[in-house]
Design brief:
- Belongs to the polygalacturonase-inhibiting protein family.
- InterPro entries: Leu-rich_rpt, LRR_dom_sf, LRR_N_plant-typ, PGIP.
- Helices cover 11% and strands 19% of the residues.
- It is α/β, with parallel strands linked by helices and 336 residues long.
- The chain has a domain at 235-336: Alpha-Beta Horseshoe (Leucine-rich repeat, LRR (right-handed beta-alpha superhelix)).
- It has an 11-stranded mixed β-sheet, with no helix packed on it. The protein has a 3-stranded parallel β-sheet with strand order 12-14-16, with no helix packed on it. A two-stranded parallel ribbon has the order 3-5.
Protein backbone atom coordinates (compact mmCIF):
# COMPACT_ATOMS: atom_id res chain seq x y z
CA UNK A 1 0.00 0.00 0.00
CA UNK A 2 1.63 3.30 -1.12
CA UNK A 3 1.93 6.52 0.84
CA UNK A 4 -0.92 8.20 -1.05
CA UNK A 5 -3.31 5.37 -0.22
CA UNK A 6 -2.34 5.48 3.47
CA UNK A 7 -2.96 9.23 3.56
CA UNK A 8 -6.37 8.81 1.94
CA UNK A 9 -7.38 6.09 4.42
CA UNK A 10 -6.18 8.17 7.37
CA UNK A 11 -8.14 11.19 6.16
CA UNK A 12 -11.26 9.08 5.69
CA UNK A 13 -10.90 7.66 9.19
CA UNK A 14 -10.46 11.09 10.74
CA UNK A 15 -13.48 12.42 8.82
CA UNK A 16 -15.62 9.51 10.04
CA UNK A 17 -14.55 10.00 13.64
CA UNK A 18 -15.22 13.75 13.44
CA UNK A 19 -18.64 13.12 11.92
CA UNK A 20 -19.56 10.63 14.64
CA UNK A 21 -18.42 13.02 17.36
CA UNK A 22 -20.48 15.82 15.79
CA UNK A 23 -23.56 13.62 15.68
CA UNK A 24 -23.05 12.53 19.30
CA UNK A 25 -22.53 16.06 20.62
CA UNK A 26 -25.34 17.65 18.63
CA UNK A 27 -28.08 15.53 20.12
CA UNK A 28 -31.37 17.42 20.01
CA UNK A 29 -32.23 18.23 23.63
CA UNK A 30 -35.55 19.80 22.71
CA UNK A 31 -38.69 17.80 23.40
CA UNK A 32 -40.37 16.96 20.10
CA UNK A 33 -43.83 17.97 21.33
CA UNK A 34 -42.46 21.35 22.40
CA UNK A 35 -40.75 21.79 19.03
CA UNK A 36 -43.94 21.00 17.14
CA UNK A 37 -45.85 23.49 19.30
CA UNK A 38 -43.26 26.21 18.76
CA UNK A 39 -43.37 25.74 15.00
CA UNK A 40 -47.15 26.13 15.16
CA UNK A 41 -46.68 29.36 17.14
CA UNK A 42 -44.23 30.62 14.52
CA UNK A 43 -46.68 29.82 11.71
CA UNK A 44 -49.52 31.49 13.60
CA UNK A 45 -47.40 34.66 13.78
CA UNK A 46 -46.86 34.52 9.99
CA UNK A 47 -43.29 33.16 10.18
CA UNK A 48 -41.64 36.46 11.17
CA UNK A 49 -37.96 37.10 10.53
CA UNK A 50 -37.64 37.71 14.28
CA UNK A 51 -38.02 33.94 14.72
CA UNK A 52 -35.74 32.95 11.83
CA UNK A 53 -33.67 30.71 14.12
CA UNK A 54 -36.74 28.54 14.70
CA UNK A 55 -35.75 25.94 12.12
CA UNK A 56 -37.15 22.39 12.33
CA UNK A 57 -33.74 20.83 11.67
CA UNK A 58 -32.09 22.46 14.69
CA UNK A 59 -32.36 22.02 18.43
CA UNK A 60 -35.14 24.29 19.69
CA UNK A 61 -33.27 24.76 22.97
CA UNK A 62 -30.86 26.93 20.97
CA UNK A 63 -33.57 29.05 19.37
CA UNK A 64 -33.86 32.80 19.93
CA UNK A 65 -36.42 33.90 22.59
CA UNK A 66 -36.43 30.49 24.26
CA UNK A 67 -35.01 28.78 27.29
CA UNK A 68 -35.12 25.09 28.11
CA UNK A 69 -34.92 23.66 31.58
CA UNK A 70 -32.28 21.22 32.77
CA UNK A 71 -32.40 17.45 32.89
CA UNK A 72 -34.75 17.49 35.89
CA UNK A 73 -37.55 18.59 33.54
CA UNK A 74 -36.18 16.67 30.56
CA UNK A 75 -35.09 19.90 28.88
CA UNK A 76 -38.68 21.06 28.32
CA UNK A 77 -39.24 24.69 27.28
CA UNK A 78 -39.60 26.83 30.43
CA UNK A 79 -39.39 30.37 29.01
CA UNK A 80 -40.82 32.04 25.90
CA UNK A 81 -39.99 35.75 25.62
CA UNK A 82 -40.88 37.45 22.34
CA UNK A 83 -40.29 41.20 22.27
CA UNK A 84 -39.62 44.21 20.05
CA UNK A 85 -39.98 42.42 16.71
CA UNK A 86 -41.85 43.17 13.50
CA UNK A 87 -44.60 40.70 14.32
CA UNK A 88 -48.33 40.88 13.73
CA UNK A 89 -51.27 38.69 14.63
CA UNK A 90 -52.72 37.47 17.91
CA UNK A 91 -51.17 35.62 20.82
CA UNK A 92 -51.29 32.04 19.54
CA UNK A 93 -53.50 29.75 21.64
CA UNK A 94 -50.77 27.12 21.22
CA UNK A 95 -48.77 28.83 23.98
CA UNK A 96 -50.94 26.77 26.33
CA UNK A 97 -49.41 23.61 24.86
CA UNK A 98 -46.01 24.26 26.45
CA UNK A 99 -46.84 22.52 29.74
CA UNK A 100 -43.59 23.33 31.58
CA UNK A 101 -43.59 27.04 30.78
CA UNK A 102 -42.68 29.25 33.74
CA UNK A 103 -42.16 32.58 31.98
CA UNK A 104 -44.30 33.92 29.11
CA UNK A 105 -43.65 37.35 27.62
CA UNK A 106 -44.92 39.23 24.59
CA UNK A 107 -43.58 42.80 24.94
CA UNK A 108 -43.39 45.93 22.78
CA UNK A 109 -45.09 44.42 19.73
CA UNK A 110 -47.84 46.87 18.88
CA UNK A 111 -49.23 44.77 16.04
CA UNK A 112 -50.25 42.00 18.43
CA UNK A 113 -54.01 42.31 18.77
CA UNK A 114 -57.00 40.33 20.02
CA UNK A 115 -57.74 39.00 23.48
CA UNK A 116 -55.73 37.04 26.03
CA UNK A 117 -56.20 33.36 25.12
CA UNK A 118 -57.86 31.12 27.70
CA UNK A 119 -55.41 28.32 26.86
CA UNK A 120 -52.95 30.08 29.17
CA UNK A 121 -54.80 28.43 32.05
CA UNK A 122 -53.15 25.13 31.08
CA UNK A 123 -49.76 26.52 32.14
CA UNK A 124 -49.77 25.21 35.70
CA UNK A 125 -46.12 26.11 36.34
CA UNK A 126 -46.36 29.68 35.05
CA UNK A 127 -44.70 32.16 37.40
CA UNK A 128 -44.41 35.28 35.23
CA UNK A 129 -46.91 36.57 32.65
CA UNK A 130 -45.97 39.77 30.84
CA UNK A 131 -48.23 40.82 27.94
CA UNK A 132 -47.32 44.50 27.75
CA UNK A 133 -46.96 47.27 25.17
CA UNK A 134 -49.16 45.32 22.77
CA UNK A 135 -52.57 46.22 21.38
CA UNK A 136 -54.70 43.71 23.26
CA UNK A 137 -58.42 44.32 23.71
CA UNK A 138 -61.17 42.75 25.77
CA UNK A 139 -61.21 42.25 29.54
CA UNK A 140 -58.60 41.34 32.09
CA UNK A 141 -59.81 37.73 32.16
CA UNK A 142 -61.11 36.18 35.33
CA UNK A 143 -59.49 32.88 34.34
CA UNK A 144 -56.06 34.27 35.27
CA UNK A 145 -56.97 33.36 38.85
CA UNK A 146 -56.43 29.71 37.87
CA UNK A 147 -52.67 30.27 37.55
CA UNK A 148 -51.89 29.33 41.13
CA UNK A 149 -48.10 29.66 40.78
CA UNK A 150 -48.23 33.14 39.23
CA UNK A 151 -45.95 35.67 40.94
CA UNK A 152 -45.69 38.48 38.38
CA UNK A 153 -48.50 39.86 36.18
CA UNK A 154 -48.09 42.77 33.78
CA UNK A 155 -50.76 43.70 31.24
CA UNK A 156 -49.64 47.33 30.95
CA UNK A 157 -49.92 49.51 27.83
CA UNK A 158 -52.80 47.79 26.06
CA UNK A 159 -56.42 48.59 25.23
CA UNK A 160 -58.01 46.35 27.85
CA UNK A 161 -61.44 47.34 29.16
CA UNK A 162 -63.90 46.31 31.83
CA UNK A 163 -63.13 45.92 35.52
CA UNK A 164 -60.25 44.42 37.47
CA UNK A 165 -61.29 40.88 38.46
CA UNK A 166 -61.61 40.44 42.22
CA UNK A 167 -60.48 36.82 41.84
CA UNK A 168 -56.85 37.91 41.34
CA UNK A 169 -56.71 38.26 45.12
CA UNK A 170 -56.99 34.47 45.34
CA UNK A 171 -53.55 33.91 43.83
CA UNK A 172 -51.36 32.75 46.73
CA UNK A 173 -47.96 33.78 45.30
CA UNK A 174 -48.77 36.98 43.42
CA UNK A 175 -46.32 39.77 44.29
CA UNK A 176 -46.75 42.21 41.41
CA UNK A 177 -49.81 43.42 39.44
CA UNK A 178 -49.46 46.04 36.69
CA UNK A 179 -52.55 46.86 34.64
CA UNK A 180 -51.60 50.48 33.97
CA UNK A 181 -52.20 52.36 30.71
CA UNK A 182 -55.41 50.60 29.70
CA UNK A 183 -59.10 51.56 29.58
CA UNK A 184 -60.22 49.83 32.75
CA UNK A 185 -63.31 51.03 34.58
CA UNK A 186 -65.16 50.17 37.78
CA UNK A 187 -63.82 50.11 41.30
CA UNK A 188 -60.79 48.60 43.00
CA UNK A 189 -61.97 45.20 44.29
CA UNK A 190 -62.68 44.90 48.02
CA UNK A 191 -60.96 41.51 47.90
CA UNK A 192 -57.62 43.25 47.31
CA UNK A 193 -57.53 43.93 51.01
CA UNK A 194 -57.06 40.24 51.75
CA UNK A 195 -54.24 38.77 49.70
CA UNK A 196 -53.38 35.34 51.15
CA UNK A 197 -49.62 35.77 51.36
CA UNK A 198 -47.24 38.49 50.21
CA UNK A 199 -48.91 41.84 49.53
CA UNK A 200 -48.25 42.69 45.87
CA UNK A 201 -47.17 45.90 44.22
CA UNK A 202 -50.36 47.45 42.80
CA UNK A 203 -49.85 49.49 39.61
CA UNK A 204 -53.23 50.69 38.30
CA UNK A 205 -52.32 54.10 36.86
CA UNK A 206 -53.69 55.71 33.68
CA UNK A 207 -57.10 54.04 33.61
CA UNK A 208 -60.65 55.19 34.30
CA UNK A 209 -61.16 53.56 37.69
CA UNK A 210 -63.74 55.24 39.90
CA UNK A 211 -65.22 55.07 43.37
CA UNK A 212 -63.37 55.03 46.66
CA UNK A 213 -60.45 52.92 47.82
CA UNK A 214 -61.74 49.92 49.80
CA UNK A 215 -61.12 50.36 53.52
CA UNK A 216 -59.77 46.81 53.58
CA UNK A 217 -56.63 48.04 51.80
CA UNK A 218 -55.78 49.90 54.99
CA UNK A 219 -55.07 46.59 56.68
CA UNK A 220 -52.19 45.80 54.34
CA UNK A 221 -48.57 46.90 54.20
CA UNK A 222 -47.77 47.52 50.53
CA UNK A 223 -44.35 48.19 49.07
CA UNK A 224 -45.62 50.25 46.14
CA UNK A 225 -49.01 51.67 45.18
CA UNK A 226 -49.67 53.63 41.99
CA UNK A 227 -53.31 54.62 41.51
CA UNK A 228 -52.47 57.82 39.61
CA UNK A 229 -54.50 59.30 36.74
CA UNK A 230 -57.85 57.70 37.45
CA UNK A 231 -61.19 59.03 38.72
CA UNK A 232 -60.91 57.77 42.28
CA UNK A 233 -62.65 59.70 45.05
CA UNK A 234 -63.02 59.86 48.82
CA UNK A 235 -60.54 59.13 51.58
CA UNK A 236 -57.16 57.55 50.89
CA UNK A 237 -55.59 58.21 54.29
CA UNK A 238 -55.96 54.55 55.32
CA UNK A 239 -53.00 53.76 53.05
CA UNK A 240 -50.68 55.64 55.42
CA UNK A 241 -49.56 54.89 58.95
CA UNK A 242 -46.61 54.71 61.30
CA UNK A 243 -46.60 50.94 61.00
CA UNK A 244 -46.62 50.89 57.17
CA UNK A 245 -43.31 50.19 55.46
CA UNK A 246 -44.52 51.30 52.02
CA UNK A 247 -41.77 52.86 49.89
CA UNK A 248 -43.79 54.51 47.11
CA UNK A 249 -47.34 55.94 46.97
CA UNK A 250 -48.64 57.77 43.89
CA UNK A 251 -52.25 58.97 44.13
CA UNK A 252 -51.86 61.93 41.78
CA UNK A 253 -54.52 63.24 39.39
CA UNK A 254 -57.59 61.79 41.04
CA UNK A 255 -60.34 63.37 43.14
CA UNK A 256 -59.31 62.30 46.63
CA UNK A 257 -60.41 64.39 49.60
CA UNK A 258 -58.91 63.94 53.06
CA UNK A 259 -57.15 65.92 55.75
CA UNK A 260 -53.37 65.74 55.26
CA UNK A 261 -52.81 67.09 58.79
CA UNK A 262 -53.73 63.68 60.20
CA UNK A 263 -51.50 61.63 57.90
CA UNK A 264 -48.61 59.90 59.65
CA UNK A 265 -45.82 58.50 57.51
CA UNK A 266 -43.31 55.73 58.11
CA UNK A 267 -39.62 56.53 57.76
CA UNK A 268 -39.37 54.00 54.90
CA UNK A 269 -41.51 56.14 52.57
CA UNK A 270 -39.32 57.51 49.78
CA UNK A 271 -41.83 58.58 47.10
CA UNK A 272 -45.09 60.45 47.76
CA UNK A 273 -47.07 62.06 44.94
CA UNK A 274 -50.48 63.57 45.79
CA UNK A 275 -50.72 66.30 43.14
CA UNK A 276 -54.01 67.31 41.49
CA UNK A 277 -56.53 66.20 44.11
CA UNK A 278 -58.77 67.96 46.62
CA UNK A 279 -56.68 67.30 49.73
CA UNK A 280 -57.13 69.74 52.61
CA UNK A 281 -55.35 70.54 55.89
CA UNK A 282 -51.69 71.37 56.33
CA UNK A 283 -48.35 69.61 55.97
CA UNK A 284 -47.53 67.96 59.34
CA UNK A 285 -44.42 69.20 61.13
CA UNK A 286 -43.41 65.59 61.68
CA UNK A 287 -42.70 65.26 57.95
CA UNK A 288 -39.42 67.11 58.49
CA UNK A 289 -38.16 63.92 60.14
CA UNK A 290 -38.52 61.84 56.98
CA UNK A 291 -36.05 61.44 54.13
CA UNK A 292 -38.40 61.69 51.20
CA UNK A 293 -36.70 61.39 47.82
CA UNK A 294 -39.68 62.58 45.77
CA UNK A 295 -42.57 64.71 47.04
CA UNK A 296 -45.39 66.47 45.20
CA UNK A 297 -48.46 67.98 46.92
CA UNK A 298 -49.19 70.65 44.31
CA UNK A 299 -52.68 71.47 43.00
CA UNK A 300 -54.59 70.71 46.19
CA UNK A 301 -56.35 72.78 48.85
CA UNK A 302 -53.61 72.83 51.50
CA UNK A 303 -53.08 75.75 53.86
CA UNK A 304 -50.58 76.90 56.46
CA UNK A 305 -46.79 77.15 56.53
CA UNK A 306 -44.48 74.59 54.95
CA UNK A 307 -42.60 73.19 57.98
CA UNK A 308 -38.97 74.20 58.17
CA UNK A 309 -36.10 71.83 58.79
CA UNK A 310 -35.37 68.41 57.45
CA UNK A 311 -35.68 67.87 53.70
CA UNK A 312 -38.91 69.75 52.97
CA UNK A 313 -37.05 72.87 51.77
CA UNK A 314 -34.87 70.72 49.54
CA UNK A 315 -37.76 70.49 47.06
CA UNK A 316 -38.50 73.36 44.70
CA UNK A 317 -41.71 75.39 44.50
CA UNK A 318 -43.28 73.01 41.97
CA UNK A 319 -43.70 70.54 44.83
CA UNK A 320 -46.04 72.90 46.68
CA UNK A 321 -47.55 75.46 44.31
CA UNK A 322 -51.23 75.89 43.36
CA UNK A 323 -52.63 75.22 46.81
CA UNK A 324 -55.32 77.24 48.56
CA UNK A 325 -53.17 79.07 51.10
CA UNK A 326 -49.90 77.20 51.56
CA UNK A 327 -47.04 79.54 52.37
CA UNK A 328 -43.36 79.74 53.21
CA UNK A 329 -40.14 78.68 51.48
CA UNK A 330 -39.64 77.52 48.82
CA UNK A 331 -42.85 79.31 47.74
CA UNK A 332 -42.66 83.02 47.05
CA UNK A 333 -45.60 83.72 49.36
CA UNK A 334 -44.57 84.43 52.94
CA UNK A 335 -46.70 83.42 55.88
CA UNK A 336 -48.46 86.30 57.67
Amino acid sequence: MDHKTNTTLLFSLLFSITYLITIATSKDLCNQNDKNTLLKIKKSLNNPYHLASWHPETDCCSWYCLECGDATVNHRVISLTIFAGQISGQIPPEVGDLPYLQNLMFHRITNITGQIPSTITKLKYLRSLRLSWLNLTGPVPDFLSQLMNLEYLSLAFNQLSGSIPSSLALLPKLSYIDVSRNKLTGTIPESFGSFPAEVPHLIFSHNQLSGSIPKSLGNLDFNRIDFSRNKLTGDASMLFGANKTTFSIDLSRNMFQFDLSRVVLHESLGVLDLNHNGITGSIPVQWTEYSLQILNVSYNRLCGPIPTGGSLQRFDSYTYFHNKCLCGAPLDSSCK
